Amino acid sequence: MGPTLLNWPVLLGQAAEMATDAAAVAGDLGPMRGVPIVVILLPIAIVALIVLVPVVMGIRAEQHKREMEHAERMRAIELGRPIPGEAGWWSPARTAVGIGVGVPLGIFGIAFVASMITAQAAPFIWPSAGGIGLAAVICGTILASRLPDPRGPSSANGNGTKPYVDPDAYDAAEHQHA
After folding, report:
1. CA 178, CA 173: separation in Å to the nearest integer?
2. Distance CA 111, CA 116 (A)
3. Tally of CB atoms within 10 A around 18
4. Which of the two residues, 98 and 162, has the higher pLDDT score?
5. 19-34: burial string, b at 16+ Cβ within 10 Å, e else
6. Is the entire prediction scored with pTM above 0.90?
7. Contact 95/140 with Cβ under 8 angstroms?
8. Do 90 and 96 touch, CB atoms closer than 8 A?
9. Distance between CA atoms of 111 and 102, rounded to whole angstroms?
């Protein structure tokens, strides 16, 4: 192989293929000559196990999770309950805010337009809009006060701990066999 072969990548590729084929026919493995095949394949198998086992376990765990979510959704549909994790956009909190803020804004906007159109009715429009707006704010506040605590039932007493319950008050198992 002279310097002219370095200018021709196709000829170099063909020369490399011919050298590899000749070495395979002759049985020459180069530096791997005399090494048992088990020593070569064992590290490859160990690395494959270290990579493949967690991947397969992760795929199976995700499949199990999806199956459980599907079963939960189907059971919720059967019972007529809302689907977990898919609350509608109009949650009770947004409804309360919509009534308490949206209704007065809408009413005062309508009252403004109506008072611009008819100047004679303006003394009657604004008190009516004020009454309806006040009623909407009160209703929105009542709805918001009835919302469940987002921190859960354990925070009902204020400090986040369980309330004290007398253990003897609910001991039904003791009285069954007496």
Report:
1. 9
2. 9
3. 10
4. 98
5. eeeeeeeeeeeeeeee
6. no
7. no
8. no
9. 14
